[in-house]
Amino acid sequence: MKPIPRALALACALAGMTACTLDQPRTFNKAGAPDLQAEHWYSIRAVGEDEQRTIEIYVYGEIGYWGITSGDFIRDLKSQDDGVSPVLVLFDSIGGDLFDGIAIHNTLNALGERCTARIVGACFSAASVAACGAHRVEMADNALFMIHNPWTYMAGGSEELRKMADMMDKALEGIVTSYQRRELTVDDAELRRLINEETWFTAAEAKAAGFVDHVLAGSLPQIDNSAHGKILNRYRNTPQAALDLINNQPEPSEPELEQDPVALAAQLTAACHAEGLANVAHVLINASGLKSAAAVQAAVKNAAAVRDVCVLAKLPGEAEQLIKDGLTAEQARAKLFDKLVATSAQVELDNHPPVLDDQPPAARAVTPQAVYASRKSHRLERSA
Length: 384
What we know:
CATH topology of the largest domain: 2-enoyl-CoA Hydratase, Chain A, domain 1
Distance between the termini: 63 Å
CATH architecture of the largest domain: Alpha-Beta Complex
CATH superfamily of the largest domain: 2-enoyl-CoA Hydratase, Chain A, domain 1
Order of helices and strands: HEEHEHEHEEHHEHEHHHHHHH
Radius of gyration: 29 Å
Number of helices: 14
Shape: extended
């Protein structure tokens, strides 16, 4: 199979993903490129003892290759499950790999009546497929639920692209079947329309459609999910409620100065020189506000991380502007990912015949023995 373009390969490296081929299709949500450790918080634990024992599972982050894989989920659940304890799965996830979501869905479905899914924040894309595998689904009244068509990318010829389109249609059938395990109030045609149009549901709307059994009154406690916000602009119909849900973070308190601003400026400048960032020292002085030594260190650390992302993308010249724009390393990674994918989106056609490494030579090779024999023959003919 023809290799993928260089720019797309770099984009894949930035995203922490493997580019699709027909042999290894990936069907996922339109997420960016989160860091494995920074972007998810996941745990399975047993709470209580004997009759009061409950298994609590937190799926807070992405599902699949770059987050919580179905293999990890199933292994960890088996290590805690005694076969009788109630299982409570809390979801705050933007989704991820569809097939990991389906595997988690089937695992929860096999637990039967003792399994409850509780949506406490975001439940988008593959996460909504996974949650619908539970016998009972609860949802906080300030949470959101979203369904949409499978999405992927790949490189290949026209036949391979047609086969991938057929596979995507089959993936859609897996989504439809998973949702229809719930007692929905919409028929098959309406469900497919909602999926195709990328539909966002409030808790009340999700309950009315049958995705949710019960709406929980009052806000539920959530961990910091600000990392989700950077991917919402990739969806077509992101409602303001989703943006409010993700961006509703407390304002940080104003720290007091720890030492003299002049000394902090000198410290920042020296740190920038040590990191090879002397050209942006003045930018970081303004960005840090010289509020504290911690703020100075954080500004330099973030700038170095942005620079490293640009080096990985083979675009070191972009680093200075991205740092000036005040982007984090993850924001810079997402921006470079989009840029590299856009530059590799042109179709490349190659009509040259393939070169076979084992093809026999067109003419016989000339050897010294043959040359000597030919000259000897000519000398004998002249002397005759």
